[in-house]
From TrEMBL:
Its EC number is 5.1.3.3. It is an enzyme of class 5 (isomerase). InterPro entries: Ald1_epimerase_CS, Aldose_1-epimerase, Aldose_1/G6P_1-epimerase, Gal_mutarotase_sf_dom, Galactose_mutarotase-like, GH-type_carb-bd. The lineage of its organism: Bacteria, Pseudomonadati, Pseudomonadota, Gammaproteobacteria, Oceanospirillales. One of its GO terms (molecular function) is aldose 1-epimerase activity. Belongs to the aldose epimerase family. Keywords: Carbohydrate metabolism, Isomerase. This is Aldose 1-epimerase.
Length: 357
């Protein structure tokens, strides 16, 4: 068996747009299903230590359920993933007001972000990998952002059980860009995620205020519940008496990915996280070129309609959203998220699946 791609009708949006599901399968039987709606990873099936396959991402069985939830299940987020304080941008001296769709702040692209858009798709495969290339043009002024932004996101599943996501964008006017995928993982396949063991290759994190906007400083994880430098069960400290956790109802913060030794690691890809689910033996390793990873424990899932009649509740899944830091356009000391004409936005994240030893 070689890699294959299957295409099938998934439904229609409330606006009558056709939604198609593309299922990429490799020789090992690992398969990922992706929608042209929002570039959503609708299903991801991997094997456990007993040879059984299970779907390890949260999602929906129909378009209506995706349209009726605001959890961004499996979706591409942009133009700016995460939050921008009060929806305010200043670029080249010009002020731009974005929608405030998350309390006082702008979140994941606004009222109609990329998660709700229909993307054009090109599918191709050979013996070793299957690729799905999604394209979308975000118009100048869409959701308040300046510049026509041409975006290309490629999902690639190879024979080594690696799912690579590459983000590419160019603009005709200076703008800000921060793209990510918002998949919720549960390596057990069901139940909560609190017994998963997580290691984050990050010595520091970004503290935030009560509305999840950074104060502007970077803080060491040492001596805090944010310390995942050694593998730790997600649930160990999640209910600690810590202001950062209390205001977020759990983990929902950006960790600063360690840069490593560039002489020893010439690749810009940096190991970001390793997750192990002890009961099934499933392991997921994440590498990225991005400076940060937002670790979120599904703190606001509340009876969300899921697949096969399931309801997703608080902490039933976790996200590892590789991206820039929240509110970077308003934080002078954070890495810049501006993209100028003639420049290329190019980032890669790799999710590798296997079994713990």
């Amino acid at each position: 068996m070689t890699t294959t791609i299957k295409q099938e009708h998934f439904g229609q949006t409330s606006q009558g747009e056709v939604v198609t599901r593309y299922t990429l399968t490799n020789a090992q039987g690992t398969e990922v299903s992706i929608l042209n709606l929002g570039g959503i990873i609708q299903s991801l099936k991997t094997v456990d230590k007993n040879g059984h396959f299970a779907d390890i991402v949260l999602g929906c069985d129909n378009v209506a359920d995706y349209e009726n939830q605001s959890a961004y299940l499996g979706a591409l987020c942009g133009r700016y993933a995460n939050r921008i304080r009060e929806g305010q941008l200043v670029i080249d001296g010009s002020h731009y007001q974005l929608a405030c769709n998350n309390g006082p702040n702008h979140l994941h692209g606004g009222d109609q972000g990329y998660n709700q858009r229909i993307w054009s798709v090109r599918a191709e495969h050979d013996n070793s990998e299957a690729r799905l290339t999604l394209r979308y043009q975000s118009r100048d002024g869409e959701e308040g952002y300046p510049g026509n932004l041409d975006i290309q996101v490629t999902y690639c599943l190879n024979s080594q059980n690696e799912l690579t996501v590459n983000y590419h964008a160019v603009t005709d006017k200076t703008t800000v860009v921060n793209l990510t995928n918002h998949s919720y993982f549960n390596l057990k396949g069901s139940g909560n995620c609190l017994e998963h063991e997580l290691q984050l290759f990050a010595d520091s994190f970004v503290p935030t205020n009560a509305s999840a906007i950074p104060f502007g400083d970077i803080k060491s994880v040492a001596g805090t519940p944010m310390d995942f430098r050694e593998p730790k069960v997600i649930g160990q400290d999640i209910d600690a008496d810590d202001q950062q956790l209390l205001q977020a109802r759990g983990y929902d913060h950006s960790w600063v990915v360690n840069q490593g030794d560039s002489l020893l690691k010439p690749s810009p890809l940096k190991q970001c996280a390793v997750v192990i689910e002890p009961e099934t033996g499933r392991r997921m390793t994440v590498k990225t070129t991005q400076p940060g990873v937002q670790f979120y424990t599904g703190n606001f899932l509340d009876g969300l309609s899921g697949k096969e009649g399931n309801r997703y509740n608080k902490r039933d899944g976790f996200c590892l959203e590789t991206q820039h830091f929240p509110d970077s356009p308003n934080q002078a000391d954070f890495p810049s998220t501006e993209l100028k004409p003639g420049e290329v936005y190019n980032h890669t994240t790799v999710f590798a699946f296997g079994l713990s030893s």
